[in-house]
Amino acid sequence: MALADHTIAGVAQDAASFPALSARRLLVAGGMALFLCGTIFGDIFAVFILHPNAGRVGQALAAAAMAVRAKDVAGVLQNFNAIGGFLENRGTKVDAHLHMIVFGYLAMLIAIVLPHVHLSEAVKKRLAVLLITGAVVLPVGVFAIPYVGLAYSPLQSIGWASIIADTGGFLVILAGAGFLAGLFRRASGINAVTAEDQMLGGRSWCGRLLMAGGMVLILAGFVQGVWYAAVDLDAHEKLDHTLLETIAQSAALDPGGAELPASTVAALNGYGYLQADHAVKIAAHSHIIEFGLLAMMAGFFQPYVFLSDRWRRRWAVLLLAGGAILPIFVLLELRWGLVAGGIADAGGALAILALFGMLTGILRFTGKADSSVRAAGGRR
Q: Is the pTM of this model over 0.85?
């Protein structure tokens, strides 16, 4: 990879708004790392957990219908408890994935507005460490909930994993409240002395592309969400109720037999397709907005991506391309099956690769800027 076109003096000048071992560097690098980890985990979850889990839910629902036909109350309860366990397992994985991404957004957003937070650098850094720590602890605790359960818990209904997750959330709230207090002090007229802020003032071709492209992605996500809410959501909710009622009634009215009646099988298949259709449309809506927000935030950080212009442009284009490919082909999964799923995963991989490249450039900038500042200090 080629070296950036910055001169030593230029890097040192840019470093004035990105000082060594600063809260801003920690928030930018930590936020990108959180988003990167959350996206990678989401890809792994989608490929290896989501679809098998959905299959198990369908099998348990069919077994529950068979138990209703056989008037096996214990079997019905057992299968619905199993469905609850599968849904909890899925829910905790989704929550862990989303919390890492959301906390990544929060860290990067705070980094952008940090010059307007009137607190000492030492306090900002402590709050940044607190935020990143909580942002790691909470999703790890949420992920562990199905595996830890209530074992050795001091509470009857809350396990140690939930307690740890709540502790992480408290740390994030505490850090967020501290930064918010600094913003209020700024708004109250207490002026902070800051150097020229390249993150807010500088705007390269890559920065403009990422901001414009991110805005287009967000707009597309809103349009798709409005369309789904206006056209499909109400019909999906009514059909969901109708299919579950059909499954229960057809099984209860035709007791006995080794096989489910055709009406029950059709209702089960329809219910599975309905849940899949709902899931892909919600996923496409949320992912395109997520990548749009990420692209816009990444546009602010381009002055500190220490790579050549050619590589910065490549990563910017790859990030936008991946952010568009993934949700488009998620929507097409019900039509094209595994082919669309594979292309969607490839789009996610492009976005991950682009984000990793930008993070590498930021880490290279920090080392070069620090060495430049030290060299300038030595010459004086």
A: no
